Amino acid sequence: MNKFPRSAYVHIPFCHRRCFYCDFAVIPLGNKVETLQGYGSKTVREYLHFLYKEILSIKQKGTLSTIYVGGGTPSILDPKQIKELIDLFKENYGIDYGAEITMEVDPASFNKDDLYGFINAGINRFSLGVQSFNNQILQKSGRRHLREDAEKSCLWLKGVHDSGLIKSWSLDLIQNLPLSGFKEWQNDLEKAISFSPPHMSIYDLNIEDGTVFKKLVNLGKLILPSDKEALRNSESTHLILNNSGYSRYEISNYCLPGHQSRHNRVYWSGLGWWSFGQGSTSSPWGEKLTRPRISKEYKEWVIRQCELNLDSSLINKDFVYKELDEKIMLGLRLKEGIDIYKLLKEQNWETKKFESNFSKLLKEWNRFLESGLLVRKGNRLFLSDPKGMELSNQILISMFQWWDEIN
Ligand code: SF4
């Protein structure tokens, strides 16, 4: 067994501008993005300098089997910068033959030449943030791209996938954006499927603090699909994707056979991962470490961590496991669910405590088993699809209450 994390996430925080629903750690660069004042600017070069410093600060590491370059909008970078990044991992960590190397791309932030440049740099899987194909919805959500940009990007990705230049690609949509009623959502799904993406992520819109959407909600000016419409949308997602050969392997993720995201499974299954860049969260040995979200603070943090010898602070001396409630929450997101007996056994409770906690949880969940939201096969518990997946919050809330009660 490799004792070091096999996966690395890299955060590239730059975007053209902030979308109205987004609360990520991003740095909007404005319209100069595609010029040397954008990707080649002092801001970007300085950030990459600290990012590389952080990557190099880990001294004891093993080869990587997945890398995920996310953001932000990594496709704002020049292919040469992406190559520099991948080469840094190659030379200092090693990358397994057959590793999955994903990069997030945003329509209208790259052209066909860039795409070939990213592939030559070593990227073999792309995740395209389409969100919607409807220009009105895109505009209302503060997205910069148009339907035409998204269609063009899909065709390029389909082309490089069909010709075997990349292993896979994902098309990402957001469900329940403003103006996205039942008809609009059906159109978005059908349009997406017409490009045969091997993987699709369907995220539900969340209204986060500090976003334009949150301000509009507070002012009563954001018209979102009603709860009834939202449920109808979710049900149609399941139906349309299932009928088109996609299977749901996680609450927000669907794929054709053989195209699950290996990198994301690492997060959900509780294995360790490295993470680099401002605002990103690593969990190399079970304990989570989040970097500052503000550029200046992130740079100071990198300097301090290097001085303190970051490597020794994260080396596998004391395994700190994820809390049980988090393991259950992440495990239940997956189609295969959790082996509840095994998870509880890992707590090393003495027999009486184990039996009492185990039966309290099962008692709590009995109503969900009876109503069909949760399914039990032996000791394995999983959410039914689509009912349990859509209403998973109810089950999680009761689990968190159980966890609070027994602690
Ligand atoms: S492009 Fe993505 S990361 Fe950037 S602001 Fe929009 S949603 Fe956020």
Commentary on this structure:
The chain has 407 residues and is α/β, with parallel strands linked by helices. The protein has two domains: 7-269, TIM Barrel; 324-406, Arc Repressor Mutant, subunit A (Orthogonal Bundle). 44% of the residues lie in helices and 18% in strands. It is built from 16 helices and 16 strands. A nine-stranded mixed sheet has the order 9-10-8-7-6-5-4-1-11, with helices on both faces. Strands 14-16-15 form a three-stranded antiparallel sheet. The protein has a two-stranded parallel sheet with strand order 2-3. Strand 15 (374-377) and strand 16 form a beta hairpin. Helix 2 runs parallel beside helix 3 and helix 14 packs antiparallel against helix 16 (392-406). The longest helix is centred in the C-terminal third of the chain and has 21 residues, at 351-371. The protein is globular. The two termini are 33 Å apart. The model has no long low-confidence stretch (mean pLDDT 91). Bound molecules: iron/sulfur cluster. Iron/sulfur cluster binds next to loops.
What's this, in brief?
With 407 residues, this protein is an alpha/beta fold. The protein contains 16 helices and 16 strands. The chain has a 9-stranded mixed β-sheet with strand order 9-10-8-7-6-5-4-1-11, sandwiched between helices. The chain has a 3-stranded antiparallel β-sheet with strand order 14-16-15. It has a two-stranded parallel sheet with strand order 2-3.
